[in-house]
Amino acid sequence: MGKVSKHMMDRINEDLRQATKVNQWRNTTSVLQWFKDLPNKHELTFIVFDIIDFYPSISETLLNEALTWAKQFTKITEAMLEAIKHARKSLLYDNTGRPWLKKDTNNAFDVTMGSYDGAEICELIGLYILSTLQSKLHIENVGLYRDDGLAVLRSLSGRQADRVRKQLTEIFGNFGLRITVETNLKAVNYLDVNLNLNTGKYKPYRKPNNEPTYINAQSNHPPSITKQIPTSISKRISSLSSDKDTFDQAAPLYREALKRSGYAEPINFTPTETTRTKPQTVEGKSFGSTPPSAKQ
User: Fold this and answer.
1) Which residues lie in Low complexity bias regions (predicted)?
2) Each residue's pLDDT tens digit, 215-242
3) Alpha helices, H only, 101-209
4) How far apart are the first and last CA of the chain?
């Protein structure tokens, strides 16, 4: 039933994304496109928020509310509702054979991580949340990737930013969810990229002590896979770098990791769709343009 529910939820969520036009990001590339399209970045500040224990905190009531809201934009039959809700039944047994029920309730409702449709249920809730934020908080430039949210506002005073933080916390509290919030930021680490509103640039980000490790070049993996690893790393780091200078600053870490894994091939900056952007002028400076050496 989880597979059936996943198939249904994929269609429902895609219809909702097209109908509502909210920023539900599926990957870093979509986040970067959103960031690049922000006008007058130097006049903005970031708000970053994280939903605490998102999967297990989704209640049956919240799911029902989200499905009712979704019916405004897409067809959801009673049979579909029954299948989606049936897939929410989850039991965990201890070593004595006694079932453990979530939060000491008398039902087996749960959104489990790793289930066939767990991610799709979270996406539905995320779409519902984004729509509510736009209508109640009047934030248009806000997006969500699973449990990580990011928004921009015109530069606020400390008091105004704190008011927005309290409003966000209250809205999520009404959903039965808890969040952590940081406001008035000019640069943030989001997913695997650092975004800077002062410069308009972005660069790769890795959590501290998270060193890159790759398949050894002499492993028994198919040569077609190992041969492509340096090229894939070049493309990935290039896509996360706003220009060649940014790439050159980030590249040594990855070159050393590849060397440790037995690769002699160099990694080089490769312009991608995310780096081929129109220059953004900020106080007489140009940011985000394609370096002359990379132009065709």
Assistant:
1) 270-281
2) 999 999 999 999 999 999 999 999 999 9
3) 118-136, 158-174
4) 51
